[in-house]
Specification:
globular
Length: 174
């Protein structure tokens, strides 16, 4: 589904009934990470899975921020012809669902947050420390190098490449 110039989100639907948009965790995961656990929902609901920009089978692009992802979600809602939706967010997706609900409260009928990411900066700092402590010294050094490379990237290809390398390492800590 196109949501912005040059950006398409992969969408998969199951079931019929009240629409429920599922927002997967990550970044770096995709809708397949939660779909098996949510199969029973499709018995009574139209479950709409999508891969966020830069994840899974959706367009990989540079400059992705939470605000961009909120805009993508609203564009998806509009493209699907839905006045309002129930949102079910997992982990990072729960944070994104909360941001969407704050930005577009009239378009959200229900909000379900599953294993939500921390919403306070101090808790995110603790989480980051805990994740990094699970990596080797070499992996932490590579992460620092990749972060610098991303900050200094001059092309979208360099930005995307460093982002992929970053998540390939950090996901080991989960």
């Amino acid at each position: 589904v196109p949501v912005a110039p040059g950006v398409r989100l992969f969408v998969h639907e199951e079931g019929r009934g009240t629409p429920v948009v599922v927002i997967h965790g990550g970044p770096g995961l995709d809708s397949r990470s939660v779909a098996p656990d949510l199969e029973p929902l499709a018995r009574r609901h139209r479950v709409i899975y999508y891969d966020q920009r830069g994840s899974g089978r959706s367009t990989l692009s540079a400059g992705v921020t939470a605000d961009v992802m909120v805009r993508d979600l609203d564009a998806l809602r509009q493209r699907l012809g839905l006045a309002s939706v129930a949102l079910l967010g997992h982990s990072w997706g729960a944070g994104l669902a909360a941001l969407y609900a704050a930005a577009h409260p009239t378009h959200v009928s229900r909000l379900v947050l599953v294993s939500s990411m921390p919403l306070r900066a101090i808790t995110l700092d603790v989480m980051e420390h805990n994740l990094l402590s699970r990596l080797t010294a070499d992996e932490n050094g590579t992460l620092r190098r990749v972060v610098r490379a991303r900050l200094n990237a001059t092309t979208e290809e360099e930005d995307v490449s460093s982002c992929r390398e970053y998540w390939a390492i950090l996901l080991k800590a989960y």
